[in-house]
Amino acid sequence: MKGKESQIKDLFDHSCTDSVVGTEWSLHQLSPYIGKIKSSIAKFLINHFTEKNDVIYDPFCGASTIPLEALAMGRNVIANDLNKYAYILTLAKLHPPKSIDGVLVKIEKYNKLVLDHKSQIDLRSVPPWVRSFFHKETLRETISWVHILSKKNEWFLLACILGILHHQRPGFLSFPSSHTVPYLRLKKYPPDEYPNLYQYRNVKERLIKKVHRAFKRMPNFDEKLIKDCNQRNASSFIPNMPVDAIISSPPYMRQLDYGRDNRLRLWFLGVDNYKELDLMVSPKETNFIEVMTTCLKNWNTVLKPNGKCILFLGDNYSSKNKLKLPDLIEKIATIDLACYELIFRHESIIPNNRRVRRNYTGNKVETVLVLKKIADGNPNL
User: Fold this and answer.
1) What is the helix (H) or strand (E) element at residue 313, kind and residue range?
2) I need a labelling partner for 16 at 20 to 30 A (CA). Which of 69, 122, 265, 350 fits?
3) Predicted confidence (pLDDT) per residue in 216-252, tens digit
C-alpha cells in the first residue's frame, strides 16, 4: 500500500507542475479568476478518488474548475459559490452551447438590440472609476451587451464578455490594464505614446473572436448527468441529494480578496459593494474557522456512507489555534467532530509561475486532504 501511496503522490506532484495551457478544455480559460485551482489538479483528484456517475459537490466552486472537470469525466455535479461572478462562470461552463454557428447567429441578433439600447445609457450614472477603464463608446456598448445577455439568460456569451473586459492587449475592451486584477497601466502605456490602446474598441468584433477561442477545445458532456448550479452561502446550503464526494478549494482566511480583485466584473453584474461580498466569500480567521466547522458538519449529513471530503488547502497559519490551515482542518474533522478519518494527505510546493502574483510571499505550499466519512456517525455532530 505504501508503494501505491507514493506513486499517487508522485502523480499528484506532476499534476501540480505540468503545463496545461494548450491541452485543457478551453472553457477553463473563458474568463480569469484569481487563485483558481489548476485543472490538472482537479482532474487528478476526481480520477483517483471518485468513480464514473458519482455525485460530486463543490461548495466553493469559484471559476468552476472542479465541476467542469468532473462533468467532463462523467460525474454528476452540484456546484455552489456565493460570488455572482463565479456563479455566472459556472452556468456558462456547465451549460455551454453545442454549436458555434448557433452562437454567431445569436450575436448578430443581439447586436441589433445593443445598437438600439446603447443610446439610452447616460454615462454620468456610471462611477468614475469604472469610466476610467474604457473609451466612452466602448463602455456604452459593453453595458448594453451585459444588460441584454443577462436579460436573455445567455450565460456563455455573458461570460465571454467578462473574459475580455480588461487587459492590456488590443483584443480586449479596456484601456491597458492588468489581466486578473483591474488596475490601469497608464505609466507603462502612456496615452500619448500608445494612442491606439486608448481608442474605441468594437465589442461585437472582439466577442466573436473570444467565442472562437472558447470553442477551440470543447468537452462533450453527457446530457443525462446532473449539473446543478447554485449561488448560496456554503455554510448554510445543503444539497438536496446524497453525494459521493465533496471536492473543493476553500478560500484561505482572507489570503485573497475575491470581491476586490473582481470588482470591475462584479460592477457590470450589478454588485456595487465588493467589500461586503469579501467579508462573506473570504472571511477572516475566526469566521473562516466557524464556517469550515459548520460546513464539515453539514457535509457529513449529505455524504453517502464512506463518502469522501477532499480539500485543497493553502499553508496559512492560524494564530488563534497555533496550527497551519491543513492541520487545523484535519483536527476539526477527525478529532473535534470525529466524523471523518484521514485516508490521504500530501503537500506540494507551489511553483512561482503558478502564484497569483510572481514572487508573492503568501502561500508557498498547497496540501490535499482526503477525509472519509465515518460510517457510524459521531455524537459530536
Assistant:
1) strand 303-314
2) 265
3) 999 999 999 999 999 999 999 999 999 999 999 998 7
Rounded to whole angstroms, the Cα distance separating 243 from 334 reads 20
* pLDDT (0 to 100) of residue 355: 46
In 3D space, the residue among 282, 251, 228 whose CA is nearest the CA of residue 70 turns out to be 228
Cell numbers found for residue 130: 469604472
Query: Other C-beta atoms within 10 Å of 221: how many?
Result: 17
271: left (phi over 0), alpha (psi -120 to 50) or beta: beta
Answer yes or no: is pLDDT of 359 > 50. Answer: no
Closest of 47, 107, 98, 96 to residue 74, by C-alpha: 47
In terms of DSSP H, where are the helices of 96-135? Answer: 100-117, 128-131
CA trace torsion 330, 331, 336, 341 (10° rounding): 40
Between CA 149 and CA 321 the distance in angstroms is: 47
**Helix segments in the chain, DSSP class H:** 2-17, 39-49, 65-72, 84-94, 100-117, 128-131, 136-151, 155-163, 203-214, 258-261, 263-268, 274-281, 285-302, 325-331
Question: Of 155, 189, 187, which Cα lies nearest the Cα of 172?
Answer: 189
Distances (CA, A) of 240 to 78, 230, 237, 243, 298: 10, 12, 9, 9, 12
DSSP letter assigned to residue 248: E
The CATH number of 2-96+218-373 is 3.40.50.150
At which residue does the C-alpha cell 453527457 appear?
A: 222
Among 219, 229, 220, 224, residue whose Cα is nearest residue 58? 229
